[in-house]
Design goal:
Radius of gyration: 22 Å
Largest sheet: 5 strands, mixed
Shape: elongated
Helix content: 25-40%
Order of helices and strands: EHEEEEHHEHEHEEHEEEH
CATH architecture of the largest domain: 3-Layer(aba) Sandwich
CATH topology of the largest domain: Udp-n-acetylmuramoylalanyl-d-glutamate--2,6- Diaminopimelate Ligase, Chain: A, domain 1
Structural class: alpha/beta
CATH class of the largest domain: Alpha Beta
Strand order of the largest sheet: 2-7-6-5-4
Number of helices: 7
Number of domains: 2
């Protein structure tokens, strides 16, 4: 199953890792939706979307502060037993010792962000949509023509780069990866220099790329 490595999201969004002893490579995020587990923290796990990233914001964090220790431990154990990809605390909140210990035992990464919950969720969903979008790799040259992305395709040695030289060459000849993002957005990238060029219509190749 396709998924994005949690370590990549940690690096891209500059997240704090509360339990670095957990191997981030062992868990992948496979869906772009996220979940705020308010109901789960009360002990209700029917229809729990355990494959989503779990976000702890002000409501969830405050509720946990008012929960008795025995009840809290019981909820922690069940919540963390579902194989969730990771838990992210927002607004500079962090896990208590019991949560961190149980999460580490279950191999669940516990992460943190200083951002407001709604702001962080929007950015995370955008990044996951981009990372999890269907993609195709093709052979070609990407050129900037007056601000429009033009993809020139053809077999090796047919003169694609020669044609592109008077213009602005963005992607060297070779494997070119195109990643469609949400809606009609498209994103071109050169795997050799790890750069991407978003939101362009590839003139003349629409029927081939999409």
């Amino acid at each position: 199953m396709k998924g994005v490595n949690i370590g990549k999201i940690v690096e891209k969004m500059q997240l704090t890792v509360f339990n670095p002893e957990v191997d981030l490579k062992k868990r992948k995020i496979t869906v772009s939706d996220v979940n705020r587990p308010a109901l789960q923290l009360t002990g209700y796990f029917e229809h729990f979307e355990e494959n989503r990233v779990q976000i702890i914001g002000t409501v969830e964090y405050t509720y946990l502060q008012h929960m008795g220790k025995e009840k809290k431990l019981s909820v922690y154990r069940e919540f963390l037993s579902y194989g969730i990809p990771c838990v992210i605390f927002c607004r500079e909140f962090g896990p208590d010792e019991d949560f961190l210990k149980l999460a580490t035992e279950q191999g669940v990464p516990v992460l943190g962000s200083d951002d407001a919950t709604s702001t962080f969720m929007a950015e995370l969903i955008y990044n996951l949509n981009e990372e999890l979008a269907p993609c195709i790799s093709i052979h070609g040259v990407l050129v900037d023509v007056y601000g429009e992305g033009l993809l020139i395709m053809g077999e090796s040695g047919t003169g694609k780069e020669l044609f592109a030289q008077p213009r602005s060459l963005l992607g060297a000849e070779g494997g070119f990866q195109r990643v469609p993002v949400e809606g009609d957005g498209r994103c071109g990238g050169d795997p050799q220099n790890q750069r991407t060029y978003p939101d362009w219509d590839f003139a003349g190749y629409y029927e081939v790329l999409y």
